[in-house]
Every structure is written in structure tokens, then in C-alpha cells.
Amino acid sequence: MAATAGPDAGSRFGFTAGQEIQEFGYDDDVDEAVRSAVEDVTGKALVDEDHSDVVDGALIWWRDDDGDDTDLTDLLMDALDNLDDAGGTIVVLTPKPGRGGHVGPAVLEEAARTAGLQPTGAVSASEDWNGLRLLSRGRGR
Questions:
Q1: Which of 25, 56, 95, 101 has its CA 20 to 30 A from that of 126?
Q2: Which InterPro entries does the entry mention (predicted)?
């Protein structure tokens, strides 16, 4: 896919240098420029969904055919399992309106709240993908 993410996409998500970010939902339709932007800002390669150690954040690619809001809630809970106890940022990326696989914001927000996450803002990730930042309050607080 074309480099549409822009050089600051990773930092717009709330990720910072040195963080380890776990990726869920990778498939051949993801925007490689978005992935690169996250790796550029953190200075680390993304770790896959099978990674079982503590991470600082998560990047989730979610499409309408990946399941319903219950499936998304379950995936968000899986992402929370590895987050550092101090909390962290989860970004859910969905196809923009008019693109195949688009998911409405109400579905994302409902799944996030059910998983105990707070939506903190939407961001245009690339030409084809929107992101919703979700904040974990942290289990250690």
C-alpha cells in the first residue's frame, strides 16, 4: 500500500520512543506505512499477537468481517492482558467510511467501554484507515 500515513502517524496515536507495541489483526490489507510510522516513533519492531510478555501499547486492525462487537470486546481484553500495569494506549484501526470492512464508531466505543477502556480520540491514520485511541486506566492505580 502507498505511504499515506505521514511521518508523525505513530506519535499521533500516543506512542513514544522505547515502547513495545503489540499488533493484532495483521492481514494483507493493512497499511504498511502506518506500521512503519509506529516502528519509527518507538524505535522497535511491532510484536505479534502471540507475544506473551508485557507491552506498552497495542495496535489493532479491525474490519467488519472480523466479527461482531462481542468479538472486538474479547480482542480488546486479550490486548489488555499484556499491557503494563501502569496502563497504556490501544489504537483500533478500521477502514474509513465507504471502504470495504468499515466499522461504525458506535460499535468501537461500545466494545471499548465494555472492555473497561476509555476512548480518547479519533485520528486519521492513512488514506484508507481511521484510528480510535483507547486508554487503559492501569491496573496498578
A1: 56
A2: DUF3052
